[in-house]
Amino acid sequence: MAKPSTSQPRDEGAGAIFRTIVVPTDLTNRTVDALRLAGKLAAGRTRVTLLHVIEMIPGVAFDELKPFYEKLRLKAQKKLASLAHQARQGPASIDFAIAYGPRAETIVTEAKARGADLIVLASHRVNPMMVGRDWGTISYKVGILAACPVLLVK
User: Fold this and answer.
1) 86-91: long-range contacts at Cβ-Cβ below 8 A with a sequence spacing of 24 or more?
2) pLDDT at 43 over 90
3) What is the rounded average pLDDT of the residues 119-131?
4) pLDDT tens sequence across 55-65
5) Could you tell me if 137 and 39 are in contact, meaning their C-beta atoms sit under 8 angstroms apart?
6) Concatenated DSSP letters of the chain
7) 49, 21 in Cβ contact below 8 A?
8) What are phi and psi of 135, to 5 degrees?
9) Cβ atoms within 10 Å, residue 116
10) Which of 3, 92, 101, 132 could be stapled to 48 by a disulfide with Cβ–Cβ 3.0 to 4.6 Å?
11) pLDDT at res. 94
């Protein structure tokens, strides 16, 4: 029979299923459950990024509304910190990111750029009578477009 090895401490990051988890947020408290779950799935050196996307007004140049977007960014930063504090759990550190663009596409792009192994996304229930129709929800679009697994938290 083989004896368990006691020679080296185990690297907490070794064997982790997920190294990078992205948790998109609309800045509502629904995000807390998704962030807590991401923390439970994180092991050792797993990076968890809480991501908020500020959707831009179509047809208007960013620079024209720069003060408006800056106010949204500052407000989002405060809320991101609050959500992270509420959900603080597990060994993972939580980073914050704010991006601009269409929400679903930007979430997918940001997740890919960060090398995400998983996207954990708060979602709401959809009316089952709508089966077969394009629901148009952010979680549906992210689930279809993402290159990595997507976990919906309800």
Assistant:
1) 86/29, 86/32, 87/31, 87/32, 87/35, 87/36, 87/39, 88/39, 89/36, 89/39, 89/40, 90/39, 90/40, 90/42, 91/12, 91/42, 91/43, 91/44, 91/46
2) no
3) 78
4) 999 999 999 99
5) no
6) -PPPP-SSPPPTTTT-S-SEEEEEE-SSTHHHHHHHHHHHH--TT-EEEEEEEEPPPTTS-GGGGHHHHHHHHHHHHHHHHHHHHHH--SS-EEEEEEEES-HHHHHHHHHHHTT-SEEEEE-----GGGTTS----HHHHHHHH-SS-EEEE-
7) yes
8) -65, -30
9) 26
10) 92
11) 87
In whole angstroms, give the CA distance from residue 62 to residue 78.
Answer: 22
Q: What is the pLDDT of residues 2-32, one digit of tens each?
A: 444 444 434 444 556 899 999 999 999 999 9
| Cβ(39)–Cβ(87) below 8 Å | yes
The stretch 76-82 carries a mean pLDDT of 96
Which residue bears the tokens 């269409």? 102
Tokens of 116: 């995400």
